Amino acid sequence: MVKKEAIIKAVNGLHVRPASTFVKKAKEYSSEITIESDGKSVSGKSLFRLQTLELSSGKKLLICAEGEDEEIAASELAKLIESFKE
């Protein structure tokens, strides 16, 4: 399992539009993707589950990937979260 840390830089947090972009990208990987925040862990491939984490600006996340493409998945998804600006 590979874990990468990411901080939400988007002013409005990870609201529906960027979260759906994240989920779409996560589904491209064969690895299991989970997001950990504030002691909770949810599937990174479920928009509904992601929304339960209250992903506001400045929040620190842990992107966890386990599977064949875990290294690239965790790295690219962490970069994606940090690339969102609005």
Automatic annotation (TrEMBL):
Residues 1-86 form the HPr domain. The keyword Transport applies. Keywords: Cytoplasm, Phosphotransferase system, Sugar transport, Transport. Its main location: cytoplasm. The keyword Ribosomal protein does not apply. It is found in: Cytoplasm. Transmembrane segments: none annotated. General (non sugar-specific) component of the phosphoenolpyruvate-dependent sugar phosphotransferase system (sugar PTS). This major carbohydrate active-transport system catalyzes the phosphorylation of incoming sugar substrates concomitantly with their translocation across the cell membrane. The phosphoryl group from phosphoenolpyruvate (PEP) is transferred to the phosphoryl carrier protein HPr by enzyme I. Phospho-HPr then transfers it to the PTS EIIA domain. This is Phosphocarrier protein HPr. The lineage of its organism: Bacteria, Pseudomonadati, Spirochaetota, Spirochaetia, Spirochaetales.
